[in-house]
Design brief:
The protein has about 110 residues and is an all-beta fold. The chain has strands at about 15-20, 25, 30-40, 45-55, 60-70, 75-85, 90-95, 95-105. The protein is about 0% helix and about 60% strand. A hairpin with a 5-residue loop joins strand 4 (about 45-55) and strand 5 (about 60-70).
Length: about 110
């Protein structure tokens, strides 16, 4: 079976270029997570970006979602802002992409 050709068929989405800014914050400050969503299919469609977080070795949790509607072949950056109150080392994830975030008190 041949691989699907981009731009043909129903909407299909890929995510790329996950960025967390800044990569270290103090508790209670905001961090911005940006990911690029691309519709590789042949029709307009809506994709739900799900931002997940894992602190140290704790359970992974869904913390924010945002829908994005894209025409066939279109890309868009999706920004999610969150505030983290507790110190720790976090992994922020969208699909199979991940970035680290450190939350520490600065002296």
């Amino acid at each position: 079976i041949p691989a699907p050709t981009p731009g043909i068929g129903p909407a299909a989405f890929i995510t790329s270029n996950l960025k967390v800014t800044p990569s270290a914050i103090e508790p209670g400050n905001e961090v911005t997570v940006v990911v690029t969503v691309t519709n590789t299919g042949g029709q307009m469609g809506t994709y739900t970006v799900v931002l997940k977080i894992q602190e140290d070795d704790k359970e992974i949790q869904d913390i924010k979602t945002q829908d994005v509607t894209l025409a066939a072949g279109a890309s868009q950056n999706v920004s999610l802002v969150l505030k983290i109150l507790d110190e720790g080392h976090y992994v922020l994830m969208v699909d199979k992409l991940s970035e680290l975030l450190e939350v520490i008190h600065r002296q």
